[in-house]
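Researcher: Good morning. I'm working through a list of sequences from a screen, and I'd like to move beyond sequence-only analysis. For each chain I'm collecting a predicted structure so we can compare shapes side by side. This is the next one on the list. No need for commentary yet; just the structure.
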Amino acid sequence: MILLAAHEVTRQFDTEPILREITFEVRPGERIGLVGPNGTGKTTLLRILAGLDEPDAGTVERHPNSEIVLLEQKTEFTDDQTLHSVAKAGLASLYQLQHEMLELTQQLAKSTDTEVQSRLHRRYDQLHDKLDRLDAFHIDHRIDEVLQGLGFQKEDYPRPMSTFSGGQQNRCLLAKLLLQAPEVMLLDEPTNHLDIETTEWLEGYLNRTQQAMIIVSHDRYFLDRVTNRTLELYASRIEDYKGNFSAYWRQREERNALLRKTYEKQQDFIEKTEEFIRRNFYGQKSAQAHDREKKLARLEQVDLPRDIVTFPMSFPPTVRSGDWTIDVEHLTQGYDRPLMEDFSLMVERGARLGILGPNGCGKTTLLKTLIGELTPQSGKVRLGTNVKIAYFDQQLMSVDSDANAIEAIRPPDQPEIMPAHLRDILARFGIRGELALQAVGYMSGGERCKVALAKVAALKANLLVLDEPTNHLDLWARDALEQALQSFDGTLLFVSHDRYFLDRVAQHVLVFEPDRLRYFEGNYSGYLAFVQNQQREISAVSPELRRENRTTPNKPDLHDNESASASKRKRKYPYRKVHDIEDDIARHESLIAQCEDDLANPEYHRDGQRLREITSTYEQAKEELAQLYEHWEEAMELN
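Model: Good morning. Structure tokens for this chain:
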């Protein structure tokens, strides 16, 4: 069954369409990630699918019995709307069914006509079955589950919506949509304003639902955990990929490499054929030349792949600091209550330390204390020898919104730097041409973020302190920043909710747990595996000892990790002998090699249908080969 279908949808705001002939379908159970650089029209497409905007051409077909709802980003609330009432509105249809059931009960009590009673009983049974199937007899429990899963407390329920922050209001709108549970959920940046723990809860909730969904998100870890199909929107067009974000990223690289190879071979063939035609058009081989000219005219041209242009960010080489950069001794800090107590830490030169924890736990306060913007309540913070700090604040207040980008990144102690040099720095972060002369306040969030990063680079510091540096950056800019920070030769201290970013950049993590600050040698995934192993050990001991060990963090919904011992692992694939799997691997590798040869053969490019069949076979074989490798590894370990 098709729940939603776009047919050649086109939308144009300027001279060039932002969407051009977009076509795809959505079926039950599909969890689709919609990805693409900022400004490519993802939100516009979601609004068209939801019926909130109309295409200039093409159509959107919606199943008549399917509700399709877009996650609201902002809305106006009345004075009498509370957190609970707004979330409860998502269950309006169930309350309507309950109300109808109550009316039926009253009609049955009053009716004396046997035929009417029979009809009312049939309808009552239908409603009861439907309410039971939708778990409508536990509505209050469902509201509690969603609101508390998204970080609200019961004491928040009666509060007017106007008393909540913008981020909290967005979380309430997300709760309303989750409770509404339409057949197709259109989720535009659902993890905005969520910390890691809340995002993990949302991942689990979405994976348990039966609804189809299209998700726009910059959270690659979230996309990996939730989605099973990926649509890439770029240059006004859609490309469809199987699997989650990581599968898409891999397939895209493989597909583009193959297309480039095929394109180059075809261009070489065209060049040689044209040269033969020129040399022999009027000679003894003129018949062959005319024949090749006709074949060349019928040749289906292979286009170069759509490369998404990214700018390779970079930070300049640094002046060497001492062996350690920050020394923290017995630090206590907080406002009404201590956010950290008696905390000590030494950050060595060259370390890349990621800091994570729930919203409001004190991560930004810790950063500002370490760089001297806040005075500790007690304890000491010392900087090492020859340490120079560059600070990136998540509110982007470090860049003057009234200045143009060139002047906004000028180091205050270096007024002599030429604008051309500052332009070069901005260009490394994607701020080029006329954009560099634009006032920062008129830029998009992503552009302002890049200007702030360029200012950090202009300072030539050997200690970078970054507070949520990936906010506002698209997937490709985040990848470029990760590579730049991996190559940075100084010390890095950063706060992030981006678990993918934490995994790629951090060598150590500092985690705000419920009752402590834990320092862990390793990245985010390593920390998860560590906590999971701790929980296994605790669950194996007696209840008395478990009650005594109250310092162990309780983190729900932790995912299985490859570091689990083989004896505790469950099979992902059915039992097969290793040599049988190896035979399958050999056959698939042979098939892939044959497909690559066929795709490089210009003869096949004259037959579009045959070319598509070969390409489809090639991609399917690559996907199956990847699964065979996983099956082989599992068999080697568990057989």
